[in-house]
Amino acid sequence: MVLTVIGLAAGHEKGVLVLAGVLGLSAVIALLLAPAWVSLSALLVTVILFEANPQGFLSVTSHFYTAGGKVGLPFVFFLLVVAALLFDLVRTGEPFRLPGPLTYPLLFLLGALLIGVVNGKESGAGRGAMISQIETLLMLGVMPFVVVNALRTRTAVRNFALVAAGLAVFKGFEGTIGWLMGQGMSFGNTTLTYIEPTANWLMLLLLLTIAVAVIHRVPTSAWVRWGSLFAFAALILSFRRSFWIGAILGFVLILLLATGRRGGRVVLPGLIIFLIAFGAAYVVAGPTNSSNPVQARAKALSPSQIQLNADDRYRIEERRNVLKDLAQRPVYGLGIGVPWVAQRAVSIDFNGARQYVHFLPLWYWMKMGVFGLIAYAWLFGTALWLAFSLWKRHPDGLHRAIGLAGFAGFAGLMVVETTASFTGVDTRFSIVVGAALGWLAAARATMNDPEPEKKVEDGLVQPILAGRRAMASGVAFARSHKAWRTPAVAGALVLGGAVALVAAVVGVAVG
Length: 511
Known about the structure:
The protein is mostly helical. The protein is built from 17 helices and two strands.
């Protein structure tokens, strides 16, 4: 009897595995045969929705990023997207498009990566660390090529940005709900929304875009405006001091560039800056016995608090050790996968500490030598120039607003990454930054596209009405008839309505 039960359990587990394998293979085939934007969207939606922090809200998604020294699932997914793009280009006969001004800095980054790999291999780098760093830098360098080839029309570029706005709103809502439920990493007597950079930077870009749109009266959907309130709350409740500073810099840049500094137009930005400064002074310089976690975190921004903060003190110790190592190998750096040596005592230790440094330019220098340092400066400088040129030259108001927001967002990110390393280091964030770079290149490539644009809402009205009408008719028919033909007819009507809805979304996204 016991053997029979064990056999049934084993058979059930085997059946589940077979079913999962069949579904996985079907999904892979579907993504390969679908248009390139479908697989690209699936990758980006997955990495944005799936948090990697095992202590955060909905922490079960962190298993998606667990590699254990092997090739990770995000990289496998990314390779699938690249394969789908190449297959789509062959099938449609479309020429391969380069990401404009970003082409040379991206190729230089990939060349610096190759030098770093050779250097790391010769220096005895660990296999797991080398695989992880190669994957992340490859995805950062190749993703812009994928995005610029997947988004070939101005409408597709616009819709891509609208979907990104929707994801930013959702992450704001998710983070706020998680905070209200007390779910996530603990910070003092409260919890924080997102400790990782992906959601924070995405929400910051949304808020910066809304700010430009308000100043220049660019029409935006009501759900975006109201949803930005959740994004603002989640960004504040992340308690990431670096992102607070980056956000302040971004908004100041927008106020100066979007409003101008002549005549009465300076009154509004001056008033806003004054209110922000007043509020910051109240938060930071308020009563010292306050239990407000935002005030406690803001007080840590004071230079006098650095020596009292163990994390900040460790950053200073870490930087000294890395610079001492680089003094011995200044040209080629330590190499990909090679850890730095703690020649001076450090106050904190954590998993992967010797592969990391809290200063991104220093990380690029450490892993790829001066070539990595040049690649970092070239890539970010080109991104700033490209975003600013969209703000100045693009004929569409929304694209211009996103261009200026991208300029301020990348400038803020460069400030953020003087205290932590994300771009090219963090898997999720590198995919998202690569996609943002690709969007800038695609927006520039379609700037003179004569094809008329349409909003997602306008393109969906008629197909949605037809789909809803068909589905409602099927449900009503099923309720009023009991003949044997009823299930077939009702099912056909419902299925037809669902197909119409799917066709509407696909048609607008491709259009």
